[in-house]
Every structure is written in C-alpha cells, then in structure tokens.
Design brief:
Number of domains of chain A: 1
Order of helices and strands of chain A: HHHEEHHHHHHHHHHHH
Shape of chain A: globular
Number of helices of chain A: 15
CATH topology of chain A: Ammonium transporter fold
Helix content of chain A: 55-70%
Mean pLDDT of chain A: 93
Largest interface: A-B, 67 and 61 residues
Oligomer: homotrimer
CATH architecture of chain A: Orthogonal Bundle
Chain lengths: 428, 428, 428
Amino acid sequence: MTTASTPPVPDLAPMLAFGFLLLAPLAIAGLSLVNAGLGRSRSAAQALLGSVAIAAVSFIAFAGVGACFAGAGGAAVFTAAGKSWNWIGTGAILLGQMSKWPMEAQLGVLFECLAVALAGLIPWGAGADRMRLAAGWATAAALSVVLFPLLAHWVWGGGWLAELGANFGLGAGFLDGGGAGTVHVLGGAGALAVVWLAGARRGKFPKEGLATAMPGHNATYVLFGCLLALMGWMAFNSAGALLWLHAEPSRLVVTAINTMLAAAGALGSTLVVTWVRFGKPDASLCANGWLAGLVTSSACAALVSPAAALVTGVVMGIATPLLVEALELALSIDDPSGAISVHFMGGLWGLFAAGVFAPQRGQILAQLVGIATLLGVFLPAVYLLFELIHRLVPFRVDSDGERLGMDLYELGGGAYPEFVIHRDESYH
Amino acid sequence: MTTASTPPVPDLAPMLAFGFLLLAPLAIAGLSLVNAGLGRSRSAAQALLGSVAIAAVSFIAFAGVGACFAGAGGAAVFTAAGKSWNWIGTGAILLGQMSKWPMEAQLGVLFECLAVALAGLIPWGAGADRMRLAAGWATAAALSVVLFPLLAHWVWGGGWLAELGANFGLGAGFLDGGGAGTVHVLGGAGALAVVWLAGARRGKFPKEGLATAMPGHNATYVLFGCLLALMGWMAFNSAGALLWLHAEPSRLVVTAINTMLAAAGALGSTLVVTWVRFGKPDASLCANGWLAGLVTSSACAALVSPAAALVTGVVMGIATPLLVEALELALSIDDPSGAISVHFMGGLWGLFAAGVFAPQRGQILAQLVGIATLLGVFLPAVYLLFELIHRLVPFRVDSDGERLGMDLYELGGGAYPEFVIHRDESYH
Amino acid sequence: MTTASTPPVPDLAPMLAFGFLLLAPLAIAGLSLVNAGLGRSRSAAQALLGSVAIAAVSFIAFAGVGACFAGAGGAAVFTAAGKSWNWIGTGAILLGQMSKWPMEAQLGVLFECLAVALAGLIPWGAGADRMRLAAGWATAAALSVVLFPLLAHWVWGGGWLAELGANFGLGAGFLDGGGAGTVHVLGGAGALAVVWLAGARRGKFPKEGLATAMPGHNATYVLFGCLLALMGWMAFNSAGALLWLHAEPSRLVVTAINTMLAAAGALGSTLVVTWVRFGKPDASLCANGWLAGLVTSSACAALVSPAAALVTGVVMGIATPLLVEALELALSIDDPSGAISVHFMGGLWGLFAAGVFAPQRGQILAQLVGIATLLGVFLPAVYLLFELIHRLVPFRVDSDGERLGMDLYELGGGAYPEFVIHRDESYH
C-alpha cells in the first residue's frame, strides 16, 4: 500500500469516480447484447463483432486523437460580442504524459473513452442486419475523432455550453452529467443518418400491405442486456455526477435511485401502453422503454428528485412505443433497435426535463440552448459526415449479403452453426 | 472534484457501501438468468420480462411507499412488559427530501430497494412456466409495500429484532447482514405460497408413474448466471456488513472470501451427492447448490470464520439435492427453480449457522427468535397475502396458455422465433 | 457506519483494491463464457459446469492450503552465494485468524484466490469437447495447492523474483501486476500439457486432407464474453497495481486505459490480419486477439505509457492468428480456445514488453529472469504434475463419450434439450 510513502492522501471523490467507471463498460456490454438480440440470428455474430470492434476503434481513435480536442487542458478561445467562446481543446495526442495530468483530467478522458464507445454502438444498432462492418467502424471513428470531442469539450471541457451560466446567467450552464446529449442524442443523430442512408431491410416494407414485423432473434439477450445496462447507467451517472457536475458524494445515492426509478417508470408505462394497444405487452418495446428511461436518467438523475425522475421516465415510457410505431408506420423508417426513439428522443426529453425539474433558476434556458445546439449543429454535422463516409464506405451490404445474412456474407460463418434455424421465406 | 469546496471530507465507509451496491444488481441479473434457463424455452421471454418488470415494480413500490415503513427515521414504538417494541417506521413517501437524509439512511434505502427486487424474483422463479405476469407483479408489489418493509424495519431499521441484544441480552440482536432472512426466507415463503396456490405444471405429475423430469431449456444461462450471482452476493454481503452490522472495513475481505467459500463448498458437496445418487453430477442441482451456498453466506459471511463459512456451505450443498428431491417426489411440489430449497431452506440454515459460529455469546438465541418470527409471523402472512392476491389476480394461466407456452400466450411471440424447437408431445 | 466508533480511519488504497476485486470475477465469468462458446453445443453444459466447479475447487484448495505457501507472512529463506533466497511461504491453513492479518495480506489472498481460479480455466478451455470433468478439477486443484502458490510467493509474496531488484540490482525486481506470468503463462503451460496429453478431438485431423474447422457453437457467447472479460481485466490490473506494484492511486486511470488500448489494438490488428489472409475477418480469432491483448495488459498496464500499451497489443494481435494457425496446421495441436496462443504466448510477450517499455533501468533483465523461470521451472513442473494426474485421472473421455458429446456422457443431459441441433456426420 502507499500509505506510509505517500504524504498527500488521495482525495476520495476522484477515486470513487474511478471505481464507478470500472463498472461503466456494462452499459457497452448490455447495449451490445440488446442490439444483437433485436437483430436476426443470421447477423448476430456480425452485430457483436461489430460492437466489440466499435469499442476498440473508439478507444483508439479517442485516446489517440479525439481526447486532444475534448479536454479541459489547453483550449482555443475566441472573443465575440465581449464574451469569450471556448470552442475546442488543444491537448497532446495519444495521451502523452497522461500520468502527470491532474487526476480530474485523467478521469475525464477515461469517462469519455467509454462514453464515445457507447455512442458508437447506437448507429450500429440502427443499421442492424444490413450495415457493413467497415461502415460501422468508420462511423464510430468519425464520432470519436471529430464530433464527440467537440461536443464533449463544449459540455464537459469548460467549453461555451458549460459556461452559459457564468457568461450569460443561464442556470448553472448546460448540464448533462451522464451523457444524454453528448452520448445519446449524438449517437441517436447517427442512427437517424444511418437509417436514412442505408434504407430499410429487404422485405421490411413490402409494396403492398403493412410493414413486416421482424422480431428480434433472442428475447433473452434483449431483456438480460437491459439488466446489465441498468448497472452501466448507474455507474456512468454516478461518475458523471462527481466529474461533470461536481456533486457532493452525498448526492450519489439519489443519483443511483433516480436511475433505477427512471428505467422502472418507463418500463411500466411502456408495458401498459403496449398492453392496451396490442392486447398483450410487447417484450421488445418494453426493453426499448426501459432503455429510454435510462437515457432520460443520463440527464436527470443527478439533478432532480426521485419523484421527478420517476415522472420523467413514465412520460418517456408512454412516448417510446408510440414513437417507434410512428417512425415505422408513418415514416417507413426501419430502425431494428429503436435507437432513434430510445437514444435520440430519450436524450432530448431527458435534457429538457432536467431543466424543468432542476432546482437552479434559469436552468431550463440553458438546457434549451444545449438542445438547440444539438439539433442545429450536431444533427446536420452528423448527417453530413456520415453522408461523406457513405460515399467512401457504402453503408449497406449488397442484396446478396442481405439474403445470405451478414454473418455468412461478412464473416464467412454463422453465429450458431449447430442450431437449426427456420427458413423464413417471407424475408428472402 | 469537490475537494476545495467541501470542508467536511466524506466518510470512507458509506462511500464504499455505495460502490458495492452498484454491483449488487448482478444478483438480480444472475438470478433472472438462472430462472429463465431453468424454465422452458417457450416461456423464456415471459420469464425474463417478468423479472425485469418485477425489478421495476419493486423499485417503484418500495421507493414510493415501502421505504416509509422500513426506515430508521421515524418509528412507531409501543411499550409492553416494561420494554419498548419498535414495530414500524414512519417515513415520507416517494423518498421526499431524500438528499437531506443522513447518508446511512439513504444507503439503507438503496440496499433495500435492490434487496426487495431480489426477493420478488424468488416466487416468480417457483411459478415458472405457468404463473401469469400480472400475478408476478402483484406478488412483488405486495412484498415491496407491506411485508418486506415491516421485516426490514424489524431487522435493519432499529426494530425489535435488532434490539434483542440491547433489550433482552440476546447476543448482538438478530443479525442478518446480507438478507438471508429478509430477502431469501421471505422470498422463499412466497415461493412456497406460489407452488401451493398455482399447482404443478401440466404433465409434471402424471396419474401413473414417476414425476416427469422437465430439464431447463438452457444450461449455459443457468451456470453463467451462477457466476454473476456470486458477484452480486459478494456486493450485497459487503455492503450489508458495513450498513447493518457496522463492521470495520478490515472485516470486508473475510466477508468476500466467506461468500466464495460458502458457494464453493455447497457446489462441491451437491456435486458429490448427485454423482453418488445418479451416477453423474447433475448440472441444474449443482447450480441450485451453488446458489443455496450463497444464500447461507447472506447470513454468515460477515460474522464467521472462513472454515465455518465453508462448513455451512458444505452442509447446505448436501441438503439441497435431497430437499429438491423430497419436495418433488414425496410432496409432489413443482418448483422449477428449486426456490424453496435454495432460498427458504438455505436462508433458515444460514441464519441458524450464523448463530452457531458467530463469536458473540447468546447469538444463537437471537437467531432462533428471528427464525421463529420468520416462520411464525411472515410465513403465514405471506401465505395469506398471496392467497388474497390469487383471488384477485389468479396466479395460474389457463390450460391453453400452458400448452401454447407462456411467451405466445402472454406476449404474442416467442423468445427464439428463428430457432427450431423440438416438439415434445409428452409435455402437451 | 463506523466513523464515530473507529478512531483509525481506514486507508483508502486497500479499500479501493477491495472494491476492484469485487469486479474481478467478471474475468472468470467472461472467460468461462468464451470457452463454452468456442466449444461444441453438445459439450456446453459440461464446459460451464466444469468452469464453475473449477472456480469452486480453486477457491477451496487455495484458501485451504495454497495460501499458506503463497503469503508474505512467514517464509522459508535459505542463503546461498551470500544472498538470501526466499522460496516459499509458511502460513496457517484455512486462513486461520485471517481477520487479524494486516489488510494488505488479506487482500493478497483475495486477489490470489480469484487469480488461481482464472488460471484453472485456461487448461480447461484447451481441453474442450474431450477432457473429463474430474481431470479439469484435478488440474485446477494441482495448480491451486502447489504451483500457483509457489510462483505467487516468488513474484508477489516477497520471494526471490520480487527481490531481484534489491538483491541483484535488476530494475525493481520481476514485475507482474496483473498476473501475466502467475496466471496466464502458468495456465497456458497447463493448456500445453493438456493438449499434449489429451490429444486432438476426434476428426480434427483426418488422415487425409486438411485439419477440420470446428467452429464454436455460439459466437454471441464468445464476443459478449470478451466485453465482460475487459472489465475483469481492468479490475485485476487496477487491484494488482495497488497491491503488488504499490502504485500511487494516481496511476490507476492510466492502468485502466492501457488495458482498454491493449485489447483494442490487438483486436484491430487480428481483424486486419485475418481479413487479409482469409478475405474476411474471423470472429473467433478476433476474440482470441482481444483476449491476448488483455493478457499482455496484465503485465504492462500499470507500468507503461498508453502508446506503449497500444503497440504491445497491436503486435500481439498480429501474432495471435499466426500462432493459432501454426499450432494447428504445422504442429497438429488442437486447442479449441486458443489458450496456448492467447495466454501462454500473450503472457510471455507482455512480460517482455513490460521490461522494454517500463521506465526503470534494468527492468528488462528482471523480466527475462522471470520469463526464464517460467519456462525453465514452471513449464516442466506443470507438465510433470499434469502427466502424473493424467495417470490417476485420465484426461480424455473414451471415444463413446466424444461421439455422444460431453454433456450426455458426463452429465446425462444436454445444455439445450429443446433446440434442434444439426447432425453433423463429418465430425462423428
């Protein structure tokens, strides 16, 4: 132990944040499993190899390059209208000299490294069963190197959104402790771009009749993944409360309970809504509801009361199945993982609700500026960047690939080679 | 970080307990997966959606109402025979003003919120393949609102069982650091009520011949779930040692190792017993043995020596397969998850063994009073409450539902729609 | 809480190490799932029951006996050439009086108890689909009682390898914070012995033609297991940095990020290598690459810079698929889990790279002495011990067992009794 030899006793709060971050990869593992379970069996290995590799790409791209732009160390600031606008970080590449950085900066990079990997999974889930591996990695790299660092710097790295309170008197500045905006709205914008650019799965929207239901191939993966995701979210929200919101440690228990209540409330209301609409509860939509509740907690958990967290979740749980249905039936959008409803809409609603329920005066205005920035800057930026990538690395596999299944086509072998799978001609 | 701005440095022990509790949901995730794996494939989605929703119901019901009765804040006390009997807590609903509570009280609610969700899974596992979703949620709500809070107040909230030492000189009062009684005996009593009220699965006990073996549909879920459960138990036992037993942090390592040894010893002896009886080790019973060992550790781990924890586990591991067989063959009880043997019997034995092996004088008497309370008050109370619920929300699906499988009947779709499943006429 | 009543505030670093160790079983759970997924479906229950029971055997054998020899408490020292050689610990059996030991010694036992269980899984994975349960447990017990304690004492318990710096001026002595040598090279040596003694699976190397590809039965288990393993490794490496390397807590974040980068770099390069060689990335080999990167991090993560950790992983990721192919095609070695390449070779390379990239002067010499000890003492010792065990408990099931599948033959029932499995005559 380091006791005798280390005069300065390390602070408790950073060490706690570190411990929480060791649990945060459960959000990545859980979401990967949910996404794989919501896709087809003939794409399951590709879905999961894609997820593991997206984590790898994100770690390397962010640690190598992205972290330079995200950090709070050096920063480029310009002054306009008598105010300073801190718009991008200027750190060292590949985390040079990292162990000499202040502890808080090191922890920020670890949080962001894990957060950007989670963000990269969101478009990948939306592209399930048709998006090529290389496209998944390219989109994750683009998020890790460019867009996420910029947004993270604005929100967490002392950038202008964080300074809205100090500079313009808007509450405590834009607050997003768990990444509702930086991770989920950003990733959800990527999901929107993917479904637009890649198009629907073959047979999803036949020329005549209704959209084809394509149930996920393994509901146990989906629901078990939800339980793991809960833990990952509790970890992210707790670490973010300490790192980004400078919360007192005494605030942590409420943060954890709010995370649980947001997910629970959302699941409950999705369950009731689907029961009423379809006569039976729908397991996939309930999983979507649970995750959407978690996404709202990314914004709210550390700021609001348990009652407010529950209400925020309940509202999101009502909206989720309606949004999923509207996207599918009214807009003919094929989003197998429900990423747009869960992450994009859940994140936006969570950020708004955090403004409504947070105790600070004027917080709602700060949140609205953040939401406007996400919609006005990052949504089009994601679309443009992904469109560019799509030209270099076409997102969609060719029609042979879709018929064979992504596993055979991209990996040369299936996830379940010994199990007999139904031939389902209607999808071929 | 909060260093400069927070004069009072937060205590280490509460923050540790919080960190451990972030891991505790692995007990919920692990047990859910074990239960799903021990049931039929045509009920797997219903089993897991039930589990996730039971967690949600428990979180909301306990945080909303149950916590008022469980807590140590206000309490109703009556005086009889010259002694004060603290019998129920009187807190605020929906965790009002929670962030102003003492840290210890906040952590207690978080522990209990997770613990009651775990308790709610136990009757659900016993009702696998035939119990309706609505009945699972109703039973979980009943535990969360009424029975668990009362018991938790008596044991952990300064109630009369906790005060047995101070008031009657019985050891250190009734000790149950990890919830062997409050979670597992209580949940196990619910399992007993469920198997009684719901009856056996169709075809389990044919008119002629022996009981039908109905092996779980996925042994990898069952065994992998056991490994996750180990971690959840280590977390609950460690957090409980700090919160409920006021153990020194230096006691934590022994607590964790005792948890591992209890599970390991129980698995080992179940393995030997099944090998001797059946000629081969039985994977499902071994999983039951491992879990039963963990349940004993919920009472013992923080109190006894590693040797005593090992012996307690070994004894439970011998008993588990014999109990499972006796319940099935002698009493015609159909308990697919083995919940009665694992949780009810394991919890009782653990509480007793803790009294035998704990260093305090007179501890065995305090444990016996606790056990008598569980058997004399809570077992009948659970039965009566569940009987009442059963009249409002019949536990058992109708015979059509059982033939179709719970997934198709209650959710309208199966967990594994693309996999070819054996038609097994003997069960139809 | 213990605040008021406990005058000496507990140190932070030991409590952190304890918290990290609660997460370390995810390495065991993850590796068990990877191994099961890489084997056949008709052996899956046996693979996982074997893994759980290997954990149990290891916990009991190490806590009961092995810990006496590993510990830093008492030790046998002999003097030769004017130097003292501390060669074995002499502690109490069954962790007697453990709660009175210094915290550091208690934590060491907890770390080692979990580490030896991980080591025991490595030969078991190499023997997949043909190794008998009893042989798996016997080899795990042998590692736990004899070889691991001796090696752990030498490396972590103040033994002569740890003292290489003080006694011979070789850097800081042999450094292995996460168990690259004590766990992975040792376990990998066991894997080598197993494949040698048990031989290849039936039909793996037909008399004519190439080796038969026998893909794992469930790629989702394999890839999801990789994500869980990442967390287990982050936990082991962080705890080991504090316990064995006496690192400052401020070094922890770099340790965690290095673990992520080593895995990510290795996955990335394996992916490219397999894509180039086979025209498509190979999911199983990518999983092997990821794990091999993690194994290198066991030696490097706490010592080197992020750039060095990434390079070490990338090199290992290039080597892994080439090693797997060379072992299979050139040496006709059948190692279903790739354990020899991943753990044995990954561990050796990690230890060497740690010497190359560590800042201490002369560290490379200390690492080479450690590597020579592993190859010169422990590799033959493992082989001899396993050969002896093989005579008492033949490793390999008879040919009937292999044809039926390990599940039916050893457990009397399959892992997936309701799923229809392809009959694959070519393997029979």
